[in-house]
Amino acid sequence: KAGVTQTPRYLIKTRGQQVTLSCSPISGHRSVSWYQQTPGQGLQFLFEYFSETQRNKGNFPGRFSGRQFSNSRSEMNVSTLELGDSALYLCASSSTGTDNSPLHFGNGTRLTVT
Amino acid sequence: QKEVEQNSGPLSVPEGAIASLNCTYSDRGSQSFFWYRQYSGKSPELIMSIYSNGDKEDGRFTAQLNKASQYVSLLIRDSQPSDSATYLCAVPNQGAQKLVFGQGTRLTINP
User: Fold this and answer.
1) Does the pLDDT of residue B1 top 70, yes or no?
2) If contacts are CB pairs under 8 Å, which of residues 70-109 in chain B contact chain A?
3) A31 touches B at CB < 8 Å
4) What is the DSSP string of B12-79?
């Protein structure tokens, strides 16, 4: 079974630009979660989608948004990029998204904002 | 109080010894617990899950859970240099559809 696939692997953007990251979950997984990882803050939850519905959102500004498609693939968008948005963005999928279902992570997208 | 707390380390253990990693959590209602390993520059990889009090063994790894003390640990026996990584403890936020991660413990196995 193929794992979680994230594209692109690396991105370099300029302040003020916007960016879209893509995630394809493990086949059959309906829940997709997004996390931001930085050295200082660790893994911070962005949002979780299940069957095209956002079920939970973390404490990030509205510049961070996401969506999920009917095939469970997900995208996240960051508008008006700031230097502090430089981070590793991780997508993870799980079968149901319930408490007993572990997350399986993709390789991440490394975003650098200059 | 943070939802999930870990000693950030670094923890240095000689090759062949037992590495012990600890995690405490705040939500008494938590029912499942996960350990992830993250190598430098890579994404987290699930290595253990535990749902019941007591020990769960998988090869050289043993997860220990004590719900009364809100404490979960990971033991790595016969530590190898390849075990050098950051280990993340993760606990679901009840009903919030999110997994909360500790800051991670950086483990170094010295040959």
Assistant:
1) no
2) 88, 90, 92, 94-104
3) yes
4) EEETTS-EEEEEEES-TT---EEEEEE-TTS--EEEEEE-SSEEEEETTEEEEEETTTTEEEEEESS-
